[in-house]
Amino acid sequence: MIAAAHPIQRPLDARLLVIEQNGAIAHAARSSLADFLQPGDLVIANDAATLPASLHGVHLPSGAPIEVRLAGRSSLAPEDLRFSAVVFGAGDWRTRTEDRPPSPPLAIGDRLALGPLVATVDGVLGHERLVALTFDGPADTVWAGIAQHGRPIQYAYLDRTLALWDVWTPIAALPVAFETPSAGFALDWRFLGTLRGRGVEFATLTLAAGISSTGDPALDARLPLDEPYRVPVNTAAAIRRAKTRGSRIVAVGTTVVRALVHSEGRAGEGVADQRIGAGTRLRVVDAMLSGTHAPDESHYQVLRAFQRDDVLAQAEVALETSNYRTHEFGDSVLMFSQQGSRSAGPVPFATG
């Protein structure tokens, strides 16, 4: 695979690798995604908008420059101002995370000046780069400061500085994600209209998608961090209807899979703290639309809940030999679960 270096959410030439329930693999244009859905299917997407979660500033005890990447919270509540964060030394996204210098040593009580904001280190979370911190001031002031001073988290494979609109999906609502739930880039309003015309339901949930990489292997091994979510009553009702009629539930992104596995499709709020992998039973989800993921990425483990390792290995070869684009602005994979789905796998919708 090759990195998608340009921040184009819906390139006209985007491709789709389809992995059927029986492990068969096919190539298609991503614009044909609706052809692999059936009347009665339920598509669920993450409507979290992305925060400008990269904050540059100064470690006040030492005067050293730092970058703080907000990485998690324990709830979606706006008054919750206690964050987990990954801290780097001097530099920015143009340097690979693996090559970024560490921050100065951090201790409980250290103060960080981050543009118009000040935060206090409340704890070191088992790794020198991962800390808990709390911002000073009322919630409205803190969120305004993050919006004013922050930038979207990004990585060195991109060719330009991201703007906030580059990382908001078309259905973005509550700004709680730390990195974009980028599987949703495949959606647009025309596609949603096509789904409705074909009898496919659409619903949303909200999960505060965390960071995808820290550059440190030991810390990356802990990803994903805990992520708060909310499943609306209407979405839970749509899930019940789909299950009752024996229809398939298609998750747009690994974040939706994580929320549905943890909630079991029930309405309400929670914190997804589980690891999804080969041993995970998918009781709610039958298929997933995702970006392309390499085996060394944390998101790849989610794929192992859907298909056998030998099928994923064949898919990896197909992605590599056909030069699919990876990372958040890349191509997509539509993967149907081999765990005894309620229907026979992806059948192209009859158009004539």
How is the largest sheet built, in terms of strand order?
Answer: 3-2-19-17-15-4-13-14-16
Shape: globular
Low-confidence stretches are 341-352
Q: How many helical stretches?
A: 7
Mean pLDDT: 93
Helicity range: 10-25%
Going by CATH, what is the homologous superfamily of the largest domain? QueA-like
Distance between the termini: 35 Å
Structural class: alpha/beta
Tell me the name of the CATH class of the largest domain. Alpha Beta
Q: Please outline the major beta sheet.
A: 9 strands, mixed
What is the architecture of the largest domain at the second tier of CATH?
Answer: 3-Layer(aba) Sandwich
Sketch the topology as an H/E string, one letter per element. EEEEEEEEEEEHEHEHEHEHEEHHEE
What kind of assembly state do the chains in view correspond to? single chain
Number of strands: 19
In terms of DSSP E residues, the strand content is 25-35%
How would you describe this protein?
It is built from 7 helices and 19 strands. The chain is an alpha/beta fold and 352 residues long. The strands form 4 sheets. A 9-stranded mixed sheet has the order 3-2-19-17-15-4-13-14-16. β9 (111-114) and β10 (117-127) form a beta hairpin. The chain has helices at residues 139-149, 189-197, 217-220, 233-245, 254-263, 300-303, 309-321; strands at residues 2-3, 15-19, 25-29, 42-46, 49-50, 54-59, 64-72, 82-88, 111-114, 117-127, 130-135, 175-177, 201-207, 227-231, 249-252, 268-272, 287-291, 325-326, 332-336. The protein has 2 domains: 2-50 and 160-336, QueA-like, CATH 3.40.1780.10; 54-149, Thrombin, subunit H (Beta Barrel), CATH 2.40.10. 18% of the residues lie in helices and 28% in strands.
